[in-house]
Specification:
Blueprint (H helix, E strand, L loop, with lengths): L2 H24 L9 H27 L5 H19 L1 H16 L1 H4 L10 H23 L5 H20 L6 H47 L6 H11 L5 E8 L2 H7 L2 H22 L4 E6 L2 E7 L4 H4 L1 H17 L3 E4 L2 E4 L2 E8 L6 H12 L10 E3 L2 H20 L5 E10 L4 E11 L2 E2 L6 H9 L3 H18 L6 E5 L2 H4 L6 H10 L7 E6 L7 H13 L3 E7 L9 H4 L3 E4 L1 H5 L5 H16 L3 E4 L5 H10 L3 E2 L16 H7 L2
Parallel strand pairs: 6-7, 9-11, 11-12, 12-13, 13-14, 14-15, 15-16
Antiparallel strand pairs: 1-3, 1-6, 2-3, 4-5, 8-9, 8-16, 9-10
Helix pairs in contact: 1-2, 1-3, 1-8, 2-3, 2-4, 3-4, 3-6, 3-8, 6-7, 7-8, 8-11
Pfam families: EAL (PF00563)
Keywords: Membrane, Transmembrane, Transmembrane helix
Organism: Spiroplasma chinense
């Protein structure tokens, strides 16, 4: 066999088919996207005819010393190319033409087409087609198999198969020629794969560049001069009112980390183009812009003042926008991967909420910065008062951080021992700041400062959120946990139960295991609203508890409002329960009240066994304090020695 002529023949065939692939599909597939399947079927038939023509060129290139085995093997390359780089529809025409060239043409045109003359060759050819189909089907279900993996596995399996088939006659000239042909064929195959991959990379890169130009410049004003251009439009058309809409992929930062650049560009480009077409179709004069790379924006001029001032008209516009945003495709299939995203939007009103586009953007961005779980609706209408309240809360937290070092705060888990279970039945989540427990005398000065600055509410809520996070972080969602919460905020109009529950949901809190604890010494302004909110929380399965029972400032008239399942007796009462008769009487009264309202009494500051024994004899079953223990990590099971001490 002439090695040089065989190599030239292979390269000639590869050059013809590669050129045709590049022109008809590799760099032009986007032109036929609307007739994709039909085009691929026709293209497969065309490539099949080209394969027949290439085989004739191959035979002519080899001259008198023809290697007919190559005329059988090289068309298999085209089958692999069609299946792995185009689609199964294209393989129909290629496979049909290959079968004609394999079984019919050797008898009609024997000078150009070789025929299968041995069982080994037939088995080898059949395996060459079959292995590609098998790997393609596996790749549909197992995404880790890409084109490179498939081509390599095909090459290795065919090389091994060829060696096995030729093993019985390994020393014959026929075997040597077969193996040499096999090596040339497979080697040329890798050159073909390399070329096809380069063409695909060029196409994808060009498409990305084209899409960036299209949606950043033709459709959307870029972020550098977006507001300036919108203001020019407002001034030239004398627009007084309008709708400032920004829409975005929820949790974009997480999405960006999870997917490749190619997938990200495909998703954002698709959203940009589809949203542009749908909004443009429904709103005349809309101006599209990109305030930043994460956000799409559109300014929609209002036809009249009524559209923004009348609640019914604004509601109709809002519903229309919500339908458009909801209809934008959010599921994409890219390179065998299925990607799903959530598209959310924020809407503010120019001329009503503010005349400053920068301010409107800040309003909308405050919505965008919220967690995905907090954005219940697809489109959120901005409330400037809520935005200002949020800014005030941020300022208060910064002020609070100057009074106490919030960065150095950490939860303390104080287990509550249950005599019935003879084990830890509950976790009370306390806190310490810079190593000092917040309910100790050492923290009293800082507590007074917090109160003087009017930051008690924000401090209590901060600690509550920290406690919720510690439940999630330590994976104790199924353990009963006491969390202190601010009763002043709960009784205010600002309290949003849906936002509160969605925050708990975001940390996967089991509501039936959560017990909100309230300080009974704090005065309440709006008792009716407080009772309503507590009832709403209880309907969701959340339990309540009251603290500081027995304190001089305790307001016992609040007990019917709190409807507590647990009553915490004030620590100073417990400390001297066996020494002062009045303290013992307070404990007895707590037990009587608890029985009437079907609640349980919790004894705090149980620091010695003597106190524990006295309380046990009085009928208390739940205990916490130094005797029981505490720690920065939750303890769900009581140590054996503690159990022995408390149950002897």
């Amino acid at each position: 066999m002439n090695f040089i002529s065989a190599l030239i023949a292979c390269l000639s065939y590869t050059a013809i088919t590669a050129f045709v692939y590049t022109v008809t599909y590799g760099l032009s597939r986007h032109l036929f996207i609307k007739i994709k399947i039909y085009y691929e079927i026709v293209l497969g038939i065309g490539l099949g005819f080209i394969s027949v023509f290439g085989t004739i060129v191959l035979s002519l290139a080899m001259g008198d010393d023809k290697n007919y085995l190559l005329t059988i093997l090289l068309p298999i390359f085209l089958f692999w190319t069609a299946l792995l780089f185009i689609s199964p529809f294209a393989t129909i025409g290629v496979l049909a033409c290959n079968m004609i060239a394999l079984f019919l043409f050797p008898y009609l045109f024997p000078l150009y087409f070789g025929k299968i003359e041995s069982t080994e060759t037939a088995m080898f050819v059949a395996w060459g087609y079959s292995i590609c189909i098998i790997l393609y089907l596996i790749g549909i279900f197992w995404k880790k198999i890409d084109n490179w993996t498939s081509w390599s596995l095909i090459t290795i399996s065919l090389l091994v198969s060829g060696l096995i088939l030729m093993m019985p006659k390994i020393k014959s000239e026929e075997s040597a020629n077969f193996l040499m042909t096999l090596m040339i064929w497979l080697g040329t195959g890798y050159l073909t794969y390399a070329y096809l991959s380069i063409i695909n990379q060029i196409y994808n890169h060009a498409l990305q560049l084209q899409n960036v130009v299209v949606y950043d410049h033709q459709y959307f004003l870029n972020q550098a001069n977006a507001h300036e251009e919108i203001l020019k439009t407002i001034q030239s058309k004398k627009i007084r009112h309008g709708f400032y809409l920004t829409y975005f992929i929820s949790n974009y930062d997480l999405f960006e980390k999870k997917v490749s650049n190619l997938i990200r560009e495909h998703v954002t480009t698709s959203i940009a183009q589809e949203s542009y077409e749908k909004i443009k179709e429904n709103f005349e004069g809309a101006v599209f812009f990109k305030p930043n790379y994460k956000t799409f924006g559109v300014f929609i001029p209002a036809n009249n003042f009524k559209e923004v001032s009348d609640s019914e008209s604004t509601k109709n516009i809002f519903i229309k926008i919500e339908k458009i945003v909801s209809s934008i495709s959010s599921t994409f299939k890219v390179d065998k991967y299925k990607v799903s995203v959530k598209i959310k939007a924020a809407l503010s009103i120019y001329g009503l909420n503010s005349n400053s586009l920068d301010t409107l953007f800040e309003f909308n961005r405050s919505i965008q910065n919220k967690q995905a779980s907090e954005l219940i609706s697809t489109v959120t209408l901005v409330d400037p008062i809520e935005y200002l309240n949020e800014r005030n809360r941020t300022k208060k937290i910064l002020t609070l951080n100057e009074v106490v070092s919030l960065n150095h705060s950490s939860p303390i888990f104080e287990p509550i021992y249950d005599l019935k279970q003879r084990d830890f039945g509950y976790q009370y989540i306390n806190h310490m700041v810079e190593g000092i427990e917040i309910d100790s005398n050492l923290f009293k000065e800082q507590k007074n400062l917090i109160s003087e600055f009017g930051l008690t509410t924000i401090f209590t809520r901060f600690l509550a959120l920290s406690g919720i996070k510690s439940i999630y972080r330590n994976k104790i969602n199924d353990a009963y946990s006491f969390i202190g919460y601010d009763i002043s905020y709960l009784s205010k109009k600002d309290f949003d139960i849906h936002e509160f529950l969605s925050k708990l949901k975001s940390y996967k809190i089991n509501l039936s295991k959560l017990i909100l604890t309230f300080d009974i010494t704090i005065e309440v302004d709006d008792r009716e609203r407080l009772e309503k909110n507590i009832q709403s929380l209880k309907e969701k399965g959340i339990k309540t508890a009251i603290q500081e029972f027995g304190s001089e400032k305790a307001d016992y008239s609040l007990i019917p409002i709190y409807k507590p399942e647990y009553i915490f007796i004030e620590g100073n009462v417990i400390k001297k329960v066996n020494l002062i008769e009045e303290n013992a009487q307070i404990v007895s009264n707590a037990i009587k009240i608890a029985k009437k309202i079907d609640a349980q009494v919790v004894a705090t500051k149980v620091d010695t066994y003597i106190i524990f024994k006295a309380l046990k004899e009085m009928g208390i079953e739940l205990f916490m304090g130094h005797l029981i223990g505490s720690g920065v990590e939750p303890k769900l099971e009581a140590p054996a020695e503690l159990g022995f001490l408390l149950n002897k």
